[in-house]
Amino acid sequence: MRRAFTTLVFLLPVLVLFGVFRFVPMAGMLGLSLTDYRLGGDWRFTGTANYADLFQDAVFLNSLATTLGYVALCVPLTVAVALGTALLLNAARWGRRLFRAALLAPYVTSLVLAGVVWRWIFGPLLDSPAFVLPALAVVGVWKGFGYATVILLAGVQTVPADCVDAARVDGASAWQRLRHIRLPLLRPALLFVVAVETIGAFQVFDTVYVMTNGGPMRASYTLAYAIYDYGFTHLTYGRAAAAGVVLWAVILLVSLVQHRALERKP
Amino acid sequence: MRKWFLTALVVALAGCGTADSGRDTVTLWMYPVIEDRTRSEEFWRDVETGFEARYGVDLEVELQPWRSREEKLGAALMSRSGPDVVLLQPDMIPQYVAQGALQPVGDVVTGAERAFRPSALAAVTVGDQAYGVPLYQTVTTTVYNRKLFAEAGITELPRTWDEVRAAAPKLAARGVPVLDYSGSTESTLNLTFYPLLWQAGGTVFSADGTKSAFDSPQGIEALRFLVDLENAGGLPDGAATKGSGPANEPVVTGRAAMAHAATAAQARAVIAGVGEQDTVIGAPLRGRVQATFGMPGAVTLLRAAKNPDAARHLLTYLASPRVTEELCARSGYFQPWTTATSAPADAVSRTFTEALPFANAGDTHPRARKVMSLLAPHLQAALLGRATPEQALAEAAREVDAMLGRG
């Protein structure tokens, strides 16, 4: 009993912060999504009208598809690049700490500033509806792979060397050692990285805002950008909140599916 | 010790409460109407002093940047920390009225010492109520780089669409686009496509405001004009997605031959960029008719104003001839009254005066801004060659009408 109380006391600050800064805004967003709240402060309860409105809106559905496309490009690429880099760093005999620190630089760089530089780098490519999403995904990978590498490197280093050596003695190739020894043992780290990158990719906004404004021809009009548009350009706060709830539900669903898939024992 | 500490804390907190002067306070959010920061701060400091002396009410003028102003204002109003009075553009006023965020100010307008231009009043009127007090009037017009035209063998600067079309290939042969154009979705269509639409004789909304009207022969003609220029090399690289910003606009840096809806500030930037001798400020372009964008800047009274009576006093004070004349003199904009009391001081503003009769403030419709965000991507599609002007406007009209129909 005393132990439970002590645990609760230690957890209390986090619980309070989490409650105030996560659950309360989420509840507020859910409530707002059921109203036609206006800037003057008036509102009416509109039930699920905002949701019905969203799912009849081709622009919203297009933004959902665009976001899924971005996630499908960005997350596998980030994980693949991060995994490759982690394996390379693990094999490196020197400079591992230096590279690890260097790889984190994009992660701590302001994406708004970086977005301006990337816009110069890509130039006319951003005018092409076919290339704009891959271009944004490249920026997403650049931003996220350093952090993912650090997590995966820590995971790779926990793989027992004797397992890998035993496989090598048994004649397993490098690919077989990766496929059958390292990757299964990396599953917890991979699960974390995939989950974090997926959530981040679904919420992509700053690069879109700085580099493309959702264009050209809405080819990069993501869900987070649509929420911004609904709220700040159209002043339809109930609709923006409803779109936020949809984004939250999609992330939750995808995260659960990923969790199930990656947790399954081979 | 603990008792002493608690006593000190209570006294300190009580001190915070009594620091208030006890006078009413009015907060005004103002933007860089006067571009020069020092002159702007000086002017608004004088306004604060003058208003406080006259009405015994504290005035706080918060100078905000133009950028992201809708986001900031929206967020402030949502969190109940917004100003009492704010400067709004006419196409924002109906949207804010529909949001229940503004109070009518007809009494201030009718009680003003001078009569406002009817076009300025129409731009701030929703239904039969005035929701803004015009402080100044802006207008846009054409700005040319005479040297670039001359180098292409064109001595008569183009005044009509046909002349611009004819000049495009000659300039393009020298790698110069005839017209600067920003197709980014963040650029307001008031300064890009709409002036062309009006010059073709078209409108954005139907007369009753229930449907779009840009998908018309006039709208198609306006978009075809742009697409023709794009195909002839007459628009800058990446015109479909290019953003606007005075510092790096092609016309400012001598990489485009003209702008069709330049503000006075842009004209001054062109003069600074390419030189006074090569800059010509012309009349608004003529398609079927001659038209351009121009609007009043108006101060509005927010419904959430903590002290509406004091805020009304502020509106009256700002609309007084002494304050407005000085604001217009310092900003280079035009006086909002039917009879201007003095001509603008600088040459650029005097030339812009000639464009005033052609000024269109845009449709006063609560969804005017929303329509822009729906229409802009389809204009991009036409400029990128992904859709014909007919297809682009038909698709945009379908989206806009669906949005207007949803209520």
Write up this protein.
The complex is a heterodimer of chains A (266) and B (407). With 266 residues, chain A is mainly α. Helices cover 77% and strands 0% of the residues of chain A. Chain A starts with a helix and ends with a helix. Chain B has helices at 2-18, 37-55, 69-78, 93-98, 106-110, 118-123, 146-151, 161-172, 193-199, 217-231, 264-274, 308-318, 321-331, 347-353, 368-383, 389-405; strands at 25-30, 58-63, 85-88, 102-103, 125-126, 129-130, 133-137, 141-145, 258-262, 279-281, 292-293, 296-302, 359-360. With 407 residues, chain B is α/β, with parallel strands linked by helices. Chain B starts with a helix and ends with a helix. Chains A and B meet through helix 12 of A and helix 3, helix 4, helix 15 and helix 16 of B.
Topology diagram in text:
The complex is a heterodimer of chains A (266) and B (407).
Chain A: H1 2-32, H2 49-55, H3 58-91, H4 96-103, H5 105-108, H6 111-122, H7 132-158, H8 161-169, H9 174-185, H10 187-202, H11 206-211, H12 223-233, H13 237-263
Chain B: H1 2-18, E1 25-30, H2 37-55, E2 58-63, H3 69-78, E3 85-88, H4 93-98, E4 102-103, H5 106-110, H6 118-123, E5 125-126, E6 129-130, E7 133-137, E8 141-145, H7 146-151, H8 161-172, H9 193-199, H10 217-231, E9 258-262, H11 264-274, E10 279-281, E11 292-293, E12 296-302, H12 308-318, H13 321-331, H14 347-353, E13 359-360, H15 368-383, H16 389-405
Parallel strand pairs in B: 1-2, 1-3, 11-13
Antiparallel strand pairs in B: 3-12, 4-12, 5-6, 7-12, 8-9, 8-10
Helix pairs in contact in B: 2-13, 9-10, 15-16
